[in-house]
Amino acid sequence: MRNQMNQLELNHSSQGERGFVFSDVSCSLVDRIPCLRTIHKITRNNTKRTRIRLTQAMRLALALTFSLSFSISAQRASAPRTSVVTFEEVPAKRTGINWVHNNAHSPERHLPETVGAGCAFFDYDNDGWMDIYLVNSGSADFFTPTTRLKNALYRNNHDGTFTDVTDKAGVAGGTFGMGVAAADYDGDGWVDLYVTSYGRNILYRNNGNATFTDVTDKTGTAAPGWSTCAVWFDYDNDGKLDLFVSSFAYYDKTLNVLCSDDIKRTYYCIPRHYKPTASQLFHNDGDGTFSDVSKASGIADSPGKAFGAVATDLNNDGRIDLFVANDTVPNFLFINQGNGKFEESGLAAGVAFSASGKARSGMGVDAADYDSDGWQDLFVANIDQEFFSLYRNQKDLTFTDEPGEIGPATQFLSGWGLRFFDYDNDGNPDLFLVNGHPDDFIEMRSTRVKYREPLLLFKNTGKGFQDVSEHSGAVFTKHFSGRGMATGDFDNDGDLDVLIANNGEAPALLRNEGGSRKNWIGLHLIAMQSNPGAVGTVVSWQAGALKRRRLKTAGGSFLASHDSREILGIGAATKIDYVEIRWPSGKVDRLTNPPINRYIKVVEGSRVK
Amino acid sequence: MMASRPQTNSLSYQIPSILLNAVNIVPRNNGAPALSLKGLRCAVIEKTCLRIRMLALFFVVVITSAHAVAQVDNLVKQLEHAAALITDNRDANAEKELTSILRVAPNEPAALNLLGTIRAKQGRLPEAEKFFLRAVRGDYKYVAAHMNLAHLYMLMGQPNNTISELKKVLLLDPGNAEALERLARLLMARGAIDEGIKALEDSEQSQPLSVKLLLLLGDAYLKQGKAAKAEARFQLALDQQSEETDAVLGLAQVSLLKRDANTASQFLQRARKMVATSPDTLYRFALVALGAGLYEEANGTLLAAIRLNPNDPAYFLALGTTWIKKPDLLEAEQAFRRALHLQPDNPTAQMYLGYALLEQKKYPEARHWLEKSLQKDKSVPETFFYLGQIAQEQNDDLGAIGFFKQAIALDRSYSFAHAGLGASYLRLKNYALAQQALELSVRLNPNDAKAHYNLAVLFARLKNPERAQEHMQVVEKLKNAKPNEPAGAKPFEPR
């Protein structure tokens, strides 16, 4: 074990150069902390969550006793577990995240004011801990801030607190920001940031020294207009991350439509009043520039009012497709033809309209194989009265809407951020929904629909989704003006936490309490030939009777970007038989009996046992 | 022993109908007013107290002033005294008086009739029946006893016997408007519209119908879709009573039946200016407003009607319908639940509740109510259609096809059922049958956007983008035109 640890430390030293093999970073000097945190958290749970800030000395001491401690924790983990997993809102005074979104609400009721904000979990400094990025409004043709508004980058201090490093990192933005997509587009081992806006977007290249450089003009990715969501994925399987940017409507302040009721109260208009625009696709040329292939790829043939977008392989042909939610016009299902072109097939697939043929107000989206049949299913959140849709893949590029319990639960809600993820590590993707009505005056017109709306959590029972919100923490009794929502394990304890960006309000950071009581393994996928985001990688794993398969998607949710690591839940099993990683390049890596309850790095093509 | 007595001079003690005369002074055919027993107090053992209180509300003792007949003078006085005692809730004393009469004249019909009334007040219905039957055996032509029997059978849940008694009354007294009205209403409520109409028409040939009966007959014609006949009766009613709101509303309903929205609107406007204090009139107004697409107004009017009478399930059914149209499915659901609370076995309310739940995607409970409705009434194609929709939503397309076919078997021109059938075939990838069913559906109902949408999906899958586009254009056109959304479509306009 000692030798192994030394080897791992050595490997870790080459981090950033993508030259090391499968490395158990959780047991290396720096990245040992995730393991320790696991142990620590169990201790904390047993002592009524008394938080202990680990000193470096304590960490080392714990590291020395790691093997013993781990076996104890594993034994605890294998004991019968009846506790409920909850989400606890961590207050700003504890996290240090004091940033508040300014939605720029105005008497003129400009529609972009209702859409933000976005948020991201990403590790900008490669320290193995999830940092947080939050997007704010800013100057626009209809808005001149009276004080300086900026986006925020919060560095994770590894102890549950964060430090605002925005200005130091040079990522304050300044545009009328919408969303964010984080990915290592240039494959240098450092995660970059793409910020979407009303106006022009910004591509921040990570310099690898805790600072970023605005390379928007150089890369040609400004995409002027009104962009909402962005997705990094490799549509042509050339190993580089391309960029899809959702475009909303043609809009500027002169096009603003003022809607009012009988007594002259103005409210935000339905987007039906605005003309659709085409979304954009940028091909990564690999030399630090991008080519706009929107027309050539066929993406531009379908003007829409695009919000959420998710990149996934819907027909299991190894090529990544795109599902795009549109507001008041049909959703798009862009099927990747493999020749640089996409075919829009939403109508034939049955995902473009409601069952009665009505275009709905699609906002948040995600994809996952929720029924474990090997095919990616889709979810789209709509506005109140329209119901949300869970589209089950019929394996022939057609889908049936089978929302089950989710249907009635969402009748009066408007959904934005949402995500399939396994919050309780039982191996099944669950579903977390963030809601909020776009119009802050909605309660004047409706008794049922509220501006601030509750969060919803649906547990995947293996037979369908069950609403467990009521039992999942006090935060589910609160109401939010929710928009963006990102998932990430910010405390590295092996379960996914949630970050919510609220419109015109402070964000909410929700810590998953108890998800890691079930066993798990975390994978940090380091692509060598495949795209740096490992988008399209299929991870399969077996732990006794539990056998699962997960395709690594990109995008999803709304205006958000997620922890790129994959946590594989194994439930009560105490060992994993194998983990198989099938990369987009075609390479397959197989890990036999890997360690549990820790993060490991897996490098594409490595010879690992 | 008493001989059969002339009706005009008889003492007549009559139980009123449950629904109509409970609190009103009702004109009698002989001109004497019926006395309200609103103030009757319970004077029996606690266990039956509630029931008797209820019954007491419905019982009226009618005393007709009669010229004294010499040979029965004492008897009449005794009977009048007994009736007065009953009116004063002094039933025990009344019973003593009547017993003393019956000791002398054991088959005296009037005494038996009064004793029956006391038993009915006491909730001892079988004993009451025996007394009333003895009364009519003693005097077959004793109309009041037959009327009391008719009321009693209603209380006992024996409407066939009620009908039989009312018919006897009309044979004995063809001009008995109350019996005629009750018979017609009862027949119509039981679905025997033709028979109800015949009863009224027969009467109409011998004498002019009262306003109330004209309205009843007009309504019956409306139910049968006979606009001209209905219009004539409502007009006659209006000629007799120019401020009769129900007649004006009836004419509005006729206009709606004739698809003459303008005239309907004019009558509705006229009705708005008239006095409408009865919940039934408000209900009728709401039905007209509902038919004219004035959902808000219908909704408000029904709420007012319900404030006046919160115990009529029909009001809640109509209210639920207005909520569906507004739309507020949760309120609709609650209204239908109230209707079912008042009338648990009402298959229409069960079906409506099932529909409201279906539209909210609360499928398990929706199915429960629709299946209950089906147990009571298998003749409604919508029930099968909604069950088919639920099966479809729950991914049971074979089951859905079965339901849609049953709906079609009941109504071959039911376009939504054909559309549902087509949608299920589409989901099952049986494109030939899907096309057949969907195309038939849009032939039957070219305004069904959902069927056109499914055809568009079908043709998109068959790689026929032109035809897919063609149908999507129809969908767009229909959505933009915002037609009155038919049953089976979601009547929502989001945001």
Which quaternary structure do these chains form? heterodimer
Helix content of chain B: 55-70%
**Largest interface by residue count?**
A-B, 29 and 30 residues
Number of DSSP helical runs of chain B: 25
End-to-end Cα distance of chain B, whole Å, is 80 Å
Share in β-strands of chain A: 25-35%
> Based on helices, strands and strand pairing, what is the structural class of chain B?
mainly alpha
Number of helices of chain A: 11
What does this structure look like?
The complex is a heterodimer of chains A (609) and B (495). Chain A is built from 11 helices and 43 strands. Chain A has 609 residues and is mostly beta strands. In chain A, strands 6, 7, 8, 9, 10, 11, 15 and 16 form an 8-stranded antiparallel beta sheet that branches. In chain A, strands 5-4-3-2-39 form a 5-stranded mixed beta sheet. In chain A, helix 2 (33-46) packs across helix 4. Chain A starts with a helix and ends in a 6-residue tail after the last strand. Chain B is mainly α and 495 residues long. Chain B is 68% helix and 0% strand. Chain B is built from 25 helices and no strands. In chain B, helix 9 packs antiparallel against helix 10. Chain B is elongated, with a radius of gyration of 28 Å. Residues 1-12, 14-69 and 483-495 of chain B have low confidence and may be disordered. Chains A and B meet through loops of A and helix 24 and helix 25 of B.
